Amino acid sequence: MNAPHATDIAGLILAGGRATRMGGRDKAEIELAGQTLLARAIARARPQVGRLLLNANRDPASFRRYGLPVLPDTIGDHWGPLAGILAGLDHLRDTWPQIKWMASFPTDSPFFPEDLVARLAEALPGHELAMATSRGRPEPVFTLWPVAIAAELRGALSNGVRKVEDFARRYPLASVDFPADSFFNVNTPDDLQLAAKRL
User: Does residue 184 contact residue 195 with C-beta atoms inside 8 Å?
Assistant: First the structure.
């Protein structure tokens, strides 16, 4: 198997969570240095993929200005990022069957690498999935997924699997290490202040 080209890969930004550690505020709309976290994620992800999608469970009209297809979870009641990933895979299978791969990104990681997808794709031959790591620690939401895995993911979710890494580890998995702090997450107001200082 050859490494897929960027035009053969779609991207999915995950913004479907409840953001409980941010007091229930929608993290996608939180501003960092005058730009929403979602806008920052889009700016980093868009050049890396052929198409870009958004997983969100709020009113799609509230995201209209971003110009992305908005996909709500299609299974469960806030079952976490795996449910959002399934929504993206299902959409690609049904809408753009020529696209065989999907990269996932969270909306709350404003500094993820600009060569993330390219490096995951380069590592993919000989494996079924490719996942980012930092200092050897998995970053499971930053993974390159085959669209064909959708049915197996739906079955796993129905059987109680919720953690991305638990599902991904079922398959031959390439790990690609990135520098420390590449995947800093904005989970709390304190994190937001740290991110602003980093900028």
Answer: yes
Q: Are strands 51-55 and 173-178 parallel, antiparallel or unpaired?
A: unpaired
* Extended strands (E) in the chain: 9-14, 31-32, 35-36, 51-55, 70-71, 101-106, 129-134, 137-146, 173-178
Classified as helix, coil or strand, 81 is helix
Q: Residues 54-101: pLDDT tens digits?
A: 999 989 999 999 999 999 999 988 899 999 999 999 999 999 999 999
Q: Is the pTM of this model over 0.90?
A: yes
- Extents of the domains making up the chain: 6-198
For residue 176, the cross-strand partners are 132
What dotted CATH number matches 6-198? 3.90.550.10
Query: And the tokens for 61?
Result: 């009209």
77: left (phi over 0), alpha (psi -120 to 50) or beta: beta
